[in-house]
Task: inverse folding
């Protein structure tokens, strides 16, 4: 079926602008930086707990307020770039990210840390729709490189942030200063570069109306969106466990206080996800989504004995398998939606996607934090992983059943959402 026309850059007079290809890759780097900043504090959490005497519950709150603030931002300004343009929304979001890093740089207690994470979540939420839609706008017509970078870049950024955070926490003389100073500088540099991105989304009426908090999926995309929800939830829920309690679980299971080891364990999940997205990028969306769900089932099942024994080898192996499932389930579902989205509704649709993802990322983590004082860290993690296993398992027949219903409904009146489900990828820039 025909794809949406490629948006052309709007006239900017004689102002200096980047080429489409350069702007595309700049958005990819920006996506990676936002995600690296989201995970970089994870290896620091156990250090904060030691320094400030924080319980595990407080660590899940520090993690979850970021995801919830991001969710609020998505609900309010997630589709704003469809009305004001990609460039101004992204530039302001990057300045906000720099402010968040500065707050955490100077944090002297958990209250300031939470405040910084809230600002960071708001900035990341504002940027998410603009980045995702901007990459689709700028990519080659029919290409799947935009969805690939959205998925692999997000996962790769989280892996890079966790790994760098672990290295700096273990070896830097003042790790929180170094980490947040670097991220502040990077955010400001990217904000300046964002001013040079060619605008692909014209000013449209309805800006104030778009700020009303709501989750809305465009009607033509709803069938595909429903198919994608279970793998979105399962994959991001397991991510919530690793990024909120990964360093604490590592210390408990591996009996080590080495922050580099904690960073490595946390980084394995998104690292494997990013690698899976790249290696399997030519796979058709629906088979990729279903195979990812199956890998999540296997990975979480192997995690259970790793926590019970405990076993370092099983934990590392389970993390890699679960990461593979995380990447392929999310990427396959994202590609399926990206193919069908109309240009003027892309930010709206992608914001709805990330609302689902970050709810799955934060709510289970908050629940885990509330249960830990009663059940203990390990038993809470076992219950958490068991729930994700069930959800990932259910997503497989749900996806197959939904696809059959969609195909049956499309037999007499073909729907745009059904066409790309079995279409192989083209990753030309």
Result:
């Amino acid at each position: 079926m025909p794809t949406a026309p490629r948006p052309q850059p709007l006239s900017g007079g004689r102002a200096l602008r980047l080429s489409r290809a350069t702007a595309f890759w700049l958005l990819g780097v920006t996506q990676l930086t936002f995600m690296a900043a989201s995970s970089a504090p994870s290896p620091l959490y156990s250090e904060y707990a030691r320094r400030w005497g924080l319980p595990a519950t407080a660590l899940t709150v520090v993690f979850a307020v970021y995801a919830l603030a991001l969710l609020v931002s998505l609900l309010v300004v997630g589709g704003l770039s469809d009305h004001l343009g990609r460039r101004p929304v992204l530039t302001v979001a990057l300045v906000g990210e720099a402010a968040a890093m500065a707050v955490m740089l100077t944090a002297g207690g958990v209250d300031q840390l939470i405040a910084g994470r809230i600002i960071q979540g708001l900035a990341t939420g504002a940027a998410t729709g603009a980045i995702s839609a901007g990459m689709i706008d700028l990519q080659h017509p029919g290409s799947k490189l935009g969805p690939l970078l959205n998925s692999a870049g997000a996962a790769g950024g989280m892996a890079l942030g966790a790994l760098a955070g672990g290295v700096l926490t273990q070896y830097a003389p003042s790790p929180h200063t170094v980490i947040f100073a670097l991220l502040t500088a990077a955010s400001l540099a990217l904000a300046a570069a964002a001013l040079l991105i060619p605008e692909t989304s014209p000013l449209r009426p309805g800006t104030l109306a778009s700020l009303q908090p709501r989750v809305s999926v465009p009607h033509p995309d709803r069938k595909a969106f429903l198919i994608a929800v279970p793998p979105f939830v399962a994959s991001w829920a397991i991510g919530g466990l690793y990024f909120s309690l990964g360093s604490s679980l590592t210390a408990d299971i591996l009996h080590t206080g080495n922050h580099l080891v904690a960073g490595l364990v946390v980084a394995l999940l998104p690292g494997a996800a990013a690698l899976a997205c790249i290696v399997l990028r030519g796979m058709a969306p629906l088979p990729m989504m279903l195979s990812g769900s199956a890998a999540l089932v296997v990975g979480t099942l192997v995690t259970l004995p790793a926590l019970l024994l405990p076993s370092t080898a099983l934990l590392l192996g389970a993390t890699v398998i679960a990461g593979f499932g995380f990447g392929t389930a999310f990427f396959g579902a994202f590609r399926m939606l990206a193919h069908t989205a109309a240009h003027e509704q892309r930010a709206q649709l992608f914001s709805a996607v990330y609302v689902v993802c970050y709810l799955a990322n934060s709510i289970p983590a908050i629940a885990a934090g509330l249960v830990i004082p009663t059940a203990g860290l390990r038993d809470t993690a076992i219950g958490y992983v068991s729930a994700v296993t069930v959800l990932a398992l259910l997503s497989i027949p749900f996806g197959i059943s939904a696809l059959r219903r969609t195909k049956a409904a499309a037999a007499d009146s073909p729907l745009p959402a059904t066409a790309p489900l079995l279409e192989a990828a083209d990753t030309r820039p």
About this structure: The chain is about 75% helix and 0% strand. Residues 20-203+218-422 form a domain with the Growth Hormone; Chain: A; fold (CATH 1.20.1250.20). The chain has a mean pLDDT of 84. The chain has one domain: 20-203+218-422.
